[in-house]
Amino acid sequence: MCRNIRPLFNFEPPVTHEEIRAASIQFVRKVSGFTAPSKANAVAFDRAVDETAAVVERLLTSLATSAPPRNREVEAARARARGAKRFSRSPTTEATPPGAAPSGRATRDAVP
Length: 112
Known about the structure:
Blueprint: E1 11-12, H1 17-32, H2 42-62, E2 70-71, H3 72-87, H4 91-95
Parallel strand pairs: 1-2
């Protein structure tokens, strides 16, 4: 899944139309490969965003769950913690070149 597209279902307060549209724009950008379409493709791009947003709204209104709604602040804090863990660097990580063991030897044994 694209990193910028976030789950939208089962949140309190419920998802807004703006959040659905933002996710739709990210999806269409990812699929089309355009961050900003040319003038020639703008109409098709905008139509795809509108259609995607409509489908997502229909999907979200038709889904059902017995789980309690998730809290946006709690989920955001969890995402920040995952990001901090993922992007934190230890001193050994920075000193070790890719493909090398911490001792500096290559990770694969050479075949004689």
